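#help-structures
NK: newbie question, is this the right format to request a structure? protein is Aldehyde oxidoreductase FAD-binding subunit PaoB
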Amino acid sequence: MRRFEFIRANSVRDAVTAHSQGTGTVFLAGGTTLLDLMKLDVMRPARLVDIHKLGLDRIDVLDDGRVRVGAMVTNTELARHEHIRRAYPVLSQALLSGASTQLRNKATTAGNLMQRVRCGYFRDGVSACNKREPGSGCAATNGQNRNVHAVLGGSDQCIAAHPSDMCVAMAAIGATVHAQGPIGARDIDFLDLHLLPGDKPWKEHALHDSEMITHVTLDAPLAHGRSAYLKLRDRASYQFALASSAAILVLEDGTIREARLALGGVATKPWRALNAEAALKGQSASADTFRRAAAIAFEDARSFGQNGFKTALGQQAIVRNLSSLVA
């Protein structure tokens, strides 16, 4: 057992100040990822700052149609919220497809944004992994890489897929992440929060030192939009996606006027398929249109052996989801 200091913050400012006072400090929200990694000895924080008592557990529907979600809102609360279920079904469905009921009751919005990858080489504590030990290499590129490894957005330094379902839905909806740090508050576009691995895969997000996520504001839902989340996996429950899609469509007389499309399980970050969206807009809502857009979404896919099937499976996730929305 490794010793660590536990601090219970009484305000956002207190939490940020405590985090900035020494290296090896981590914010503690639901702990569903952090405690796992501490038990595996992958993460070894010297100090935990508990942020449970900061009043960040509210969901507020704003006058302009946007929704402000506190960092400590649990996945269950967000998925079951009446307005979320009605206005953002894609988000509710994504949340309910992830983990187990017990984990959703503890996991938080901010924690979901910040969760670490499920790559076995990262979690075993001994294999080459640039996320865990910068410069050590990536054992996954030539190893077991079928399940939780990406064909989009990877590099020779890391191909671990981002594990979140919630984040895929938020990427499709559009959102702003609000953070508080030692020098004040800052807003980050959701699509800019998670970073591609490139040659620095240990740098996973755009937060500055000691910045803490306080809220996420969802863009207003598209007028007359219809949305859905489809998750393809080896078994029907408690399994990470092999491929998933979050889709939002606005139709007018059988023509696609607006399209939002994001992918999970196949990319190193929540993947907004902007090129596929452009291919959908102005086209008829037909199977041929969906297949063309799906192919475009995976034009830059790169297989690393066992995970090559994800290119075809990811396209199926897109076509099946879009087809269900117009059925």
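mod (FA): yep, format's fine, and the tokens are attached above. The radius of gyration is 19 Å.
NK: thank you!
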